[in-house]
């Protein structure tokens, strides 16, 4: 599965914290020719060594936080297009070409995978309710009629870097969407199956984890909008569409 940075068509960022049980399945499902970047965020179960043995490129991010791990992966990426995917086997990386397709063909700038639970237990009720509320707040803030702030997503690397994302906690995915909308990106979503995760969730598996995530995201929504002078054509993939 190992692909050199210079030849990878797409880089896949996989934030990882104690996901040794799920890693073999996840890495086996990475599309051929795409490079897996596993960002170890302080695992104690040997995830980093296992990922390396399975052919992934491993990055160590000592600062705890989902956003810190995602951004470390984005910084390490070299491919033109970057995908993000959870590392817990809840989302199938084999479906990433469907998510990245509109970005690769130029018909969209940011594509989110809208999670469709395969079982009642795949997505706890409290997490679904929090997600519905966030979707409503996103529509009010940006005008985007999204249904899910899905962790499976794709965009062009240089454009993502130009958004100057600063959140390093659970607000990172939301900040990406908000700043993309303010920069005039074409943001779309596509349905993806959502399976019960392997192992216990660090966020949505508990009320406390969900509350902390919502708190982080509310802080992002409370940020001042990016000013017109800060949103330039260079932040729009392809240049000022």
Task: Please outline the major beta sheet.
Answer: 7 strands, mixed
Percent range for helical residues?
25-40%
Please, what is the oligomeric state? single chain
> Order of strands across the widest beta sheet?
3-2-1-4-6-5-7
Structural class: alpha/beta
Mean pLDDT: 87
Low-confidence stretches: 227-234
Tell me what you see in this structure.
This protein is an alpha/beta fold. The chain is built from 8 helices and 7 strands; from the N terminus they run E-H-E-H-E-H-E-H-E-H-E-H-H-E-H. The protein has helices spanning 23-28, 47-53, 66-76, 96-104, 125-142, 157-162, 172-182, 207-221; strands at 10-16, 35-40, 57-60, 81-84, 110-117, 153-156, 187-194. The chain has a 7-stranded mixed beta sheet, sandwiched between helices. Helix 1 links the parallel strand 1 and strand 2. Helix 5 (125-142) runs parallel beside helix 8 (207-221). It is globular and about 45 Å long. The N and C termini lie far apart (36 Å). The model is unreliable at 227-234 (pLDDT under 50).
